[in-house]
Amino acid sequence: MKWLVVLLAVVLFVLHQDWWNFDKAEPLIFGFLPIGLAYHAGYSIACSVLMFLLVRFAWPSHLEQYEALPPQPGASDDAH
Question: Which of 4, 6, 21, 54 is least surrounded, with the fewest CB atoms within 10 Å of its CB?
Fold first, then answer.
């Protein structure tokens, strides 16, 4: 599953370059939204779904192990 979401990230990266809609304003989606803007609205939603999948399936587990460690004696959260 990890490699599938990485592949989806590459696909979305390529689809971000929407050269086919770059210089068009027609057709209007819902009668007022230019096609390029509608494409990027859908693209933003797809990126949000991809981010959820990346966090769910490709998050590095070693980061969670570090976070679960108990605080060290004498260590301070202050940066003084």
Answer: 4
Quick one: residue 28, left, alpha or beta (phi over 0 = left, psi -120 to 50 = alpha)?
beta
For the chain, which ranges sit under pLDDT 70? 66-69, 74-80
Q: Concatenate the DSSP letters of all residues of 4-65 into one string.
A: HHHHHHHHHHHHT--TTSTT---SEETTTEEHHHHHHHHHHHHHHHHHHHHHHHS--HHHHH
Q: Using CA atoms, how far apart are residues 39 and 45, in angstroms rounded to an integer?
A: 10
Least Cα distance to 47 among 22, 17, 72, 12 occurs for 12
- Cis bond upstream, residue 27 (ω within 30): yes
Give me 19's structure tokens.
């050269």
